[in-house]
Amino acid sequence: MFGRLLRNLTKRPLGRIFFTTSNVFDTGGKSNFSAYRSAYGCPGRLNAKVLILNQNYEPMSVVNVKKAITLLFLGKAELIEAQNGQLVRAVSVAMPFPSIVRLSVFVKVPYKKIILSRKNILRRDGHRCQYCGRADLPLTVDHVIPVSRGGEDSWENLVCACVRCNNKKGDRTPDEAMMSLRRKPMRPNHVTFIRHVVGSLDERWKPYLFLN
Ligand SMILES: [Zn+2]
User: Fold this and answer.
1) Rg (CA), the chain
2) Hey, where are the domains in the chain?
3) Secondary structure of residue 144 in the 3-state scheme
4) What is the DSSP letter of 115?
5) 17-58: per-residue pLDDT in tens?
6) What distance in angstroms lies between residue 3's CA and the mean position of ligand 1's atoms?
7) Residue 211 CA to ligand 1 centre (angstroms)
8) What residues are neighbours of ligand 1 (ion), with CB under 5 Å?
9) Which of 48, 187, 190, 206 is deepest in the core (most CB within 10 A)?
10) By three-state DSSP, how is residue 160 classified?
11) Among 22-26, 102-106, 128-132, 150-154, where is mean pLDDT lowest?
12) Listed residue (130, 134, 143) closest to 180, CA to CA
């Protein structure tokens, strides 16, 4: 859905705008437009991730840098945060390498409801056991309050648990088993999943993803 909205935004005068990976510059800390001196190839950087904020600063999605630059060039977005000291050059213009951009107009996004599924529970919990924190053991989904005790299938009652912890806990509540959860399980929203799109999170994004 977001992909289509973004395509609509970038559909128009794409015309002569194109980017080459050899046009990425490292300015050694300087980040103004005229700072670049020597160019050297940096393949792959144009696949770097950029956080897109809606006009009201709400985080919307993560796109590759190419798409973000297209939005900037078309005046559909403004630069909020740049990567330190790096420039990207398209045709004859150079600009700071974007890290966060903000759309100039508010886009109403009908976010899809995230369905309650095993896969989404594991994604929400970062594929990490919520009792012991390990990620290297086979994972299961555990009912915090067991079904036999009236526990429901809900975002608040299902967590990712390794086989070992799940067996150890058995048919008991966390209190009875003296096993505490690393964090309170909650219904995820689209921001939760933005965090998972990228492996390591750009420090600059954290305030916008409400992680500070
Ligand atoms: Zn565990």
Assistant:
1) 22
2) 2-110+191-209, 118-177
3) coil
4) P
5) 333 332 333 333 333 333 232 222 344 566 788 999 999 998
6) 37
7) 25
8) 129, 131-132, 162, 165
9) 48
10) strand
11) 22-26
12) 130
Residues listed for the chain: 212
Q: Count other Cβ atoms within 10 Å, centred on residue 156.
A: 13
What is the CA(187)–ligand 1 centre distance, in A? 21
What CATH number has the domain spanning 118-177? Answer: 1.10.30.50
- Tokens 């600009």 label which residue? 95
High-pLDDT (> 90) share of the chain, %: 44
Question: CA 88 to CA 92: how far, in whole Å?
Answer: 11
pLDDT greater than 70 at residue 6:
no
pLDDT at 32: 31
Q: 173 alpha carbon to ligand 1 midpoint, in Å?
A: 15
Give the pLDDT score at 113.
79
Cα(206) to centroid(ligand 1), Å = 27
CA of 160 to the centre of ligand 1 (A): 9
Centre of ligand 1 to C-alpha 115, Å, is 24
CA of 71 to the centre of ligand 1 (A): 44
Q: How far apart are the first and last CA of the chain?
A: 28
